[in-house]
Amino acid sequence: xxxxxxxxxxxxxxxxxxxxxxxxxxxxxxxxxxxxxxxxxxxxxxxxxxxxxxxxxxxxxxxxxxxxxxxxxxxxxxxxxxxxxxxxxxxxxxxxxxxxxxxxxxxxxxxxxxxxxxxxxxxxxxxxxxxxxxxxxxxxxxxxxxxxxxxxxxxxxxxxxxxxxxxxxxxxxxxxxxxxxxxxxxxxxxxxxxxxxxxxxxxxxxxxxxxxxxxxxxxxxxxxxxxxxxxxxxxxxxxxxxxxxxxxxxxxxxxxxxxxxxxxxxxxxxxxxxxxxxxxxxxxxxxxxxxxxxxxxxxxxxxxxxxxxxxxxxxxxxxxxxxxxxxxxxxxxxxxxxxxxxxxxxxxxx
Length: 350
Ligand code: PHE
What we know:
Keywords: Aminoacyl-tRNA synthetase, ATP-binding, Cytoplasm, Ligase, Magnesium, Metal-binding, Nucleotide-binding, Protein biosynthesis. The chain is α+β, with helices and mostly antiparallel strands. The protein has 13 helices and nine strands.
């Protein structure tokens, strides 16, 4: 019995030693087979316990099982340790090159129209104009009537209108998709008192044949300033400052008479062509001038309509198409490009 006990002790010592020495999972498996496998000495001892004298059996049985358990536990611990250590092969090939440049995530960007609208509004905001928005579905009253364009007025021809079906909209007054941002002039004047300085960016709609310079949905930016003593010189100075911020310091501007029922006098404004400096080129169609907006002094009828005394208050208003401004600024020749969603186009406006 003493000899068997000694043998088990030796077995345990050499097994644990060999397990600890094993350098990789294959060597560890070899040790397992050698000490716990079918042909292992320990297995034989356990199997032959019945052959031992009855008084030796429990002592040896207990000891042999303890040895077996100790070996199993040591194997499990060693396996975990070996698995957490990368092999030489992995260490040799799996290098991190910290000098490699990183991969850029793909980032989105603002649409060129959004960029130009923000740029224009920022310029006016810095001059003290508030930026506000208004409804795209509008009453006839604000889009036309209150802007000095009565129902039978031929000037309505200037704006081909999408009308809202009054039955399906369940309204008893005519409703439309706004054809310009000018109705916001009325809404703002109705709700506040002078002094007023606002710009209004927003979408407008016209029943239009779509071509390289017209779309049925487009943006406008309206401007309105009303106070005592506002003159055409204020309109001119404000638009001068704006144009020079957006198109460069030497820009000249030119006003020509134009007709809009809600302003008097009414003008259209051009800038000298920044491409050819007025000499004449393809961009300005050889004229030297680029038309960028309509403007004028708020008509007394419009002021009176919102309850302002036209003898006391005067104001100026202007309206521009940011798509046209962007087309001129970036040399874009077809307005439809803005909504084609072609990345080759959009990516040019980082
Ligand atoms: N609302 C006019 C248009 O769409 C532009 C404009 C605005 C003209 C303000 C004068 C003053 O054509």
